[in-house]
Amino acid sequence: MRIADRIEDLGTETAFAVAQAAADWSARGHEVYPFHLGDIDLPTAPHIIEAMNAAIADGKTGYCPGPGIPQLREALAAEIGGQRGMSLSADEIVVTTGGKPVITKFLQTVMNPGEGVLYPNPGFPIYESQIEYLGGTPLPYRYVPTPQGFAIDLDHLRSLITPQTTALIYNDLQNPISAESTQAEREAIAQIAQEHDLWVLSDEAYFDMRYSGSSHSIAALPGMRERTVILYTFSKKYAMTGSRLGCAVAPPQVAQIIATLNTNDESCTTHFVQWAGIAALTGTQEPVRAMLEDFRQRRDAVCALVNDTPGMSVAVPESTFYVFPDVTEAVRRVGAADVGDFAQQALHATGVSFCTREHFGSRQPGEDRDYIRLAYSGIALPRVEEGLGRLRDWVSSAG
Fold this sequence. Notes:
seven-stranded mixed sheet
């Protein structure tokens, strides 16, 4: 029996492969400190769980509208629009099973086979996977290091655009590198999109995961609302990663198409989970504030320990729950063949498990520095300190 050729173009979320290696090492009796996967080790807030259970008890277990129940769509329009200074209607909201399906459905809606899509590299690996799987031409644009973290190489991005380029994926507050655009950079991306008549997917999964300042959406800039789809998810802000609840915010014509894709793919998003989403949006936000304070303490510890490790350095990010330190000299110090070998040696010598730059897209021409990603959302502060202390001591003792 033959398998479809397009399956060869389907990638995966590579952090899960690292998770398997960590699980195998743990199963052999070794301590593992999991910095590899951006899951959350804190529970979903009780009032959200109570709303979900009440919806189940009330019989909200059958089919519901493909675009989402009206009550949730209205709550999302108010929440997302209010945060971004936009007046949104429920007609612009399509509820989805998490944020990730928005990537696929955006591409299905705006990209024809052979057309080019710009996307960040390093970046979330599902961007490239879905572009290739759906027959598009992947156009990875790069970042450059700055004292504050990373910035988009705008000249490189511009150089990739051809008449066949149809869309741009933009991940402000970025996974894996925690990069956040300046207002000038955000406006430059908007100008490029309008000059070349590009659709934009604004992945705003981490819009609310910040420790100071405020987030801004490219969709709120002049001329951008009619060409932008926002990816929104409950996974991060409300510790609902397994509940699979999110939405697309899109111009009405695009929203209708995404709703039709919902009907074709899933029929609808789980009915009772949508009522939990309403409780998350309209109920107390104290659990969110408490989680962010917990994560802020973890971030501070991670950055302090990384910067105290010979051959490692990182800027302190104001958003997400990742850091992306430069480990070039540490790789050399321990005698690793490359950053992948460094990760394997670190796991076996210290129990610290993490992804590397190679898990987030192929290296671009001219890249000569080594980076790793440390996710601190799934490991409590005492174990952060213990694990990265062991990593520091191991690197310090080498060389």
